[in-house]
Amino acid sequence: MARATNPNELTDVSEAQIAVHWREEEYEQPSEKFKAQANMRDPRVFDRFTTDKFPDCFKEYAAMLTWFEPYKTVLDTSDAPFWKWFVGGKINASYNCVDRHLDTYRSKAAFIFVPEPESEPDVVITYQELYDRVNEMGIQPDRSFRMWDVQQDAFRVDFPPFTDNGLLSCDPTETP
Question: What are the tens digits of pLDDT across the range 105-133?
């Protein structure tokens, strides 16, 4: 049975009341050091991604990944609209997102989760912690997330910082 409406309950919330919590409205310019390490720091990047260079322009960024089997074709349009990218190639998403960064960034924050309400502390997960959690979850999925076998992996997420752990551990061997 539906709950009766309390006439004294505040139900109308103005945008101004919500905006008080939008710390994202404050824009901070990135440091020069941060800009220098960015993948797309070249102002001519848009010239490299014009329609006349499509789809081969994406080879540049595919080269930044670790491929376990190299792709043969960047884009297969033979069965439109069911296009296939990087046909024949195999990558491991977990390896590319976590493992290959351990030597350099083991103690660096991989995720900084800012919870709501804002009074709760931020949760910082280092690359090493993420690696450990992803691998533990791949070994014991039922214990961590109550996963089950279906055509595609599915899981219930109880705590947002662990979301990516589940995604990275769904297919720990390879992702086509």
Answer: 999 999 888 887 778 898 899 999 999 98
Alpha-carbon distance of 66 to 91, in angstroms, equals 7
Number of separate domains in the chain: 1
47 lies in some domain: no
Give the pLDDT of residue 24: 60
DSSP string, 79-112: TTTS-EEEET-EE-HHHHHTGGGHHHHTTSEEEE
The domain containing residue 155 runs over which residues? Answer: 92-169
Residue 136 lies in a domain: yes
- For residue 17, give both structure tokens: 């009341």
Within 10 A of 152 (CB to CB), how many other CB atoms are there?
7
Tokens at 133, concatenated: 């959690």
**Is residue 6 in a domain?**
no
Taking the whole predicted model, whether its pTM rises above 0.70 is answered as no
The angle at the Cα of 77, spanning 76 to 81, to the nearest 5 degrees, equals 130
Domain membership of residue 114 (yes or no) is yes
69 pLDDT more than 90? yes
Residue 155, pLDDT > 80, answer no
CB half-sphere exposure, 47, CA atoms < 13 A: 4
